[in-house]
Fold this protein.
Amino acid sequence: MLAPDQKSADADAIAAVDHAITSRRSVRAFLPDPVDEETIGDILRVASRAPSGTNMQPWKVYVTAGETKRRMGEAILSSGIRAEKADWDEYKYYPDSFFEPYLSRRRAVGYALYGLLGIGRREVDRMRAQHDRNFVFFDAPVGMIFTVDRRLNKGSWIDHGMFLQSIMVAARARGLHTCPQAAFAPYHRFIRPILGIPEEEVVVCGMALGYEDTSKPENRLRTERAPLEEWAAFFR
Ligand SMILES: Cc1cc2nc3c(=O)[nH]c(=O)nc-3n(C[C@H](O)[C@H](O)[C@H](O)COP(=O)(O)O)c2cc1C
């Protein structure tokens, strides 16, 4: 039996952890307010408590702000290589063709985001412009690039994902928001020389980190989740 005070402490812990997890969402417009390096270091240190097979800790992160962050965006945007032509030569995040139920879910989030921005279904140029906002990290003051050693296997990518989620949750606990960004992966060639990323590292994704601009319509997006019964099986 828990003593009454332990019980209430537990309820607080549940509320705090659940809030950090459920209030995480992909924010796509940030305020210019900086995030100090100590806070970023704290978040990354906490997130590095993520588990990994045989404690290999198969992650690396390049944290950028200011000029370096700007140069990455410029290199990608001036490359003239449009997202739909970009080559996912290092790893494929998405399947070659979508199928159900993934196709509908993917469409739903796209339509919802463009709907909030008033972008019509045929306004391809405006869709591209919105996608290009990835490369300025949606104006976040901090842009991170994550890599994994290419000699490692799928298991290490599982570990990497847990590290990413831990960063996003630790950021929420500190009032910060994030957006994970696979959009950077097919542009790794433009990022490598700027950050000195060696060839043995695969660029997994980027991540924007900062304070949410609550005045922006794109941040009103709230995504759905399929009900538990659709993807969990209980055997009694
Ligand atoms: C690894 C990863 C990569 C993602 N890449 C992008 C991206 O490049 N650009 C973007 O706007 N959103 C990106 N997202 C965000 C997803 O669209 C988002 O997580 C999903 O729609 C669910 O919404 P929520 O994060 O607000 O809960 C990415 C998410 C993950 C986990």
Remarks:
- The domain at 26-94+134-221 is CATH 3.40.109.10 (NADH Oxidase).
- The CA atoms of residues 88 and 94 lie 9 Å apart.
- Residues 25-26, 28, 109, 134, 179-183, 205, 223 surround flavin mononucleotide (CB under 6 Å).
- Helices lie at 4-22, 37-47, 66-77, 102-116, 124-132, 154-173, 188-195, 228-231.
